[in-house]
Amino acid sequence: MSDATEALPPCLECSSAYTYEMGALLICPECGHEWSPTSAGPADDREDGTIRDAVGNVLADGDTVTVIKALKVKGSPSGIKAGTKVRNIRLVDGVDGHDIDCKIDRFGPMQLKSSVVKKA
Questions:
Q1: Which parts of the chain sit beneath pLDDT 70?
Q2: Contact 114, 51 (CB under 8 A)
């Protein structure tokens, strides 16, 4: 391994040591999480009051976001597919990291984690 690979931080989501750089982002090949190397992590985002998406963009009420990975929905035979657009989100202090309140077509009202969406 090169010294540059060893200097990269582990994944913020799954703690994998196999992160790599792609442009201005760091990417985890195991879970697919992408983040900016300048962001220190989700805990720091909470301290300054901002909520960021999986790529590091600041989210605001009324934004449109895209779900970046397939999500299972309890009680539904099919979950939410990756690429689903969610319009007019509302940021909330939810339970267990669910900080986006929204309404998804064919699923109804629900809460999502900001780590599974990307600003559209």
A1: 1-6, 38-48
A2: yes
Task: Give the tokens for residue 111.
Answer: 């809460």
CA 30 to chain CA mean position, Å: 15
DSSP state of 63: -
Number of other residues whose CB lies within 10 A of the CB of residue 26: 20
Could you give the CA distance from residue 107 to residue 2 in angstroms, rounded to a whole number?
47
In whole angstroms, what is the distance from residue 29 CA to residue 54 CA? 15
CA distance 47 to 77: 37
How far is residue 35's CA from residue 21's CA, in Å, rounded to a whole number? 10
Using the structure block, give the residue that is written with the tokens 């909520």: 51
Paired with 111 in beta bridges are 101
Bridge partners, residue 119, by sequence: 65
